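Proteins fold reproducibly. Consider a sample protein:
=====
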Amino acid sequence: MKKQVKLKSFSEIAKYPIFCDRLLIEHQISLMHNNVEKALLQFEQLYEIRTTHLKIMEEKLLPLYETVLDEFPKGGKPLYFIREKKLILKDLNRFIRLQGRMLLNPDSVKIDLVELFEEYAWFKDLLDHHDAREKVFLFPVLDRNLDEKNKTILLDELGNMYWKLPVNEVSFEI
C-alpha cells in the first residue's frame, strides 16, 4: 500500500524528476529488448508524472515565486520555466504518440533506436536543465520566503497531488 506523501520542503519535490530519469532508462532498456508494451507503460508513467509536475509548477509554484521576489536572479525568470515547460510538453506528446503507434501498428513504424535514443538524449538534457533551474531557483526561494503556515498548507496539498502519481515506492527511495 502506498503511503501518503508528506513533504517537509519544496526541495523534496526534486525527487520526482529523479524517479522519471530512472523510468526513462528502464523504458529504453525495454525498447532494446523489443518489449514495446512494457516500454509504453513505462513512458506513460513518466508522462503522467512529468505533466502533473509541470502543471503544479505552473499553476501553484510559479505564481508564488513571482510574488515573493521583487527581482529575479539571472537564469531564474518565470518566463524561462514556462518556455521550458512548453518544450518539454511538446516532446512528451511527440514521444507518447510514437510509443502508441509502435504498439498499435508495429509493422508500419520502423524505429531506429540509435536515432530515437539520440532524441531522448536531447530531451534528457532539456529535462536536466529544467530540473536544475527548479532546484537552484524555484524550490529554495519558496522554502526561504513563504511563512510556515502557508508553506505547510501548500506542501500538504502538493503531497496529496504527488501521492496520486504512479510512483513505485521502492524505486522512489533515494
Observations:
- The first helix runs from residue 15 to 32.
- The two ends are 19 Å apart (CA to CA).
- The helical segments are 15-32, 36-68, 78-104, 113-145, 148-163, 169-172.
